[in-house]
Design goal:
The protein has 156 residues and is α/β, with parallel strands linked by helices. It is built from three helices and seven strands. The model has no long low-confidence stretch (mean pLDDT 91).
């Protein structure tokens, strides 16, 4: 993987493109209209509505650039040719740690959301599971120390 390449699942790619389209077609015109209306209030140096709209415009334009870059530099992971017995990006895995069963989905860094069970392929845990098989035991080095995990199931 090159330094700028990001892996995305089909779902993650679609979600980023939908957000990008919404920002371009809905938010950008809304903000432009707010700026236009705020200019009509007169003196821009003391115009809070204008300052707020410009700040929001700056944020939205930055997010648009970020999303365009992510979509352009991403590789969409497909399971069509992957081995169903080996953990890949986009797979949901059931693992055991300290007697507890946990479910995770391995995703690219742009989709990661640990609180909803989506872990990045670039995280220590994600790296440890990538390309492993059912039954494999892995050691994961995290800031909290080393933990042992066993892969129980892989769902594509």
């Amino acid at each position: 993987m090159s330094d700028n390449k990001t892996f995305l699942t089909d779902q993650g790619h679609k979600k980023l493109k939908e957000e990008l389209e919404h920002l371009k077609k809905v938010r950008r015109p809304e903000i432009s209209e707010r700026i236009k209306q705020a200019k009509d209030y007169g003196d821009l140096s003391e115009n809070a509505e204008y300052a707020d709209a410009r700040e929001e415009q700056s944020f939205v334009e930055g997010r648009i650039l970020e999303l365009e870059n992510a979509v352009k530099n991403s590789t969409v992971v497909s399971h069509r040719n992957s081995d169903p017995n080996i953990v890949n990006i986009g797979d949901t895995i059931i693992v055991e740690r300290d007697g507890s069963k946990l479910t995770y989905m391995l995703v690219g860094s742009k989709e990661a959301d640990p609180s909803s069970g989506k872990i990045s392929n670039e995280s220590p845990i994600g790296q440890a599971f990538l390309n492993k098989k059912i039954g494999d035991e892995v050691e994961v080095k995290t800031p909290r120390g080393v933990s042992r995990w066993k892969i129980l199931e892989i769902k594509i």
